[in-house]
Amino acid sequence: MNPERSLWGLLAYGDAGYGDEFLNGAFLTIQLSIASYLVAFVLGLLGAGAKLSGNKFLYRLGDLYTTLVRAIPELLLIILIYYAGGSVIRSLLIGIGVVEEDFQVNAFATVVAALGLIYGAYLTDILRGAIQAIPKGQLEAARAYGMHAPLRFTRIIFPQMIRYAIPGMGNQWLNITKDSSLVSVVGAFELVFAAKSAASATKEYLFFYTIGALCFLTITVVSMIALHQIERRASRGVRRA
Asked: Number of structural domains, the chain?
């Protein structure tokens, strides 16, 4: 039997191989990354707003959030939020009578919350810097015309903030797709967990971990192409120095 052919045969779809496990793992990795990034973006907006609000309490709250997240390793935060956070939420919901004793916190939601909380701290300063890059004269003119705060945000701040923030946001997207592999420690069946399961069952560690790495490489390359197109589109009509 040709050893190369037998190795590639292990990637067959269905019971004959592990191809379906890798596809499911890749699909879950993308789902985790997108959902976590959306949570992170919302938290980043709130954090940036807190730091730019001019309110000392809100500023210190936002600063505490970003400092704590940056000081604690991502893996440790994921474990803490997954186990301790899930247990606290479960006890709270049972205590107020919302759910029954057999209720279990959804693992996917817990992992998304963990990654979203981590990357929300990084997006906070990226979005804050992007907002500060907007010429103040535009905001002053909007106030002079009587624009209320929500209208100023949707028509002036948000479009320009996104344009300035795209490079940093793109980097964080690439990071979150790779760090989604960290959730394998809590049993989430993403790409690394799929590679680990296949390698443990067949003892072909190099082959399956290489396949897992190639899957992440594919996601990264496709993401970089998409981000480049988004950046070009966002910069249309903007004169470059």
From this structure: 1
pLDDT value of position 240: 57
Mean per-residue pLDDT, 54-76: 90
Highest mean pLDDT: which of 12-16, 46-50, 147-151, 186-190? 46-50
- Give residue 145's pLDDT: 80
Give the predicted TM-score (pTM) of the model: 0.85
Q: Which distant-in-sequence residues (6+ apart) come within 8 Å of 10 by Cβ?
A: 17, 18, 198, 202, 204, 207, 208
- On whether residue 9 sits in a domain, the answer given is no
* 190: containing domain: 25-234
Q: Is residue 16 part of a domain?
A: no
CATH number for the domain harbouring residue 86: 1.10.3720.10
- Cα-Cα end-to-end distance for the chain: 62
In a domain? residue 175: yes
Residue 1 forms part of a structural domain: no
- Per-residue confidence at 4, pLDDT binned at 50, 70, 90? very low
**Neighbouring C-beta atoms of residue 124, cutoff 10 Å:** 25
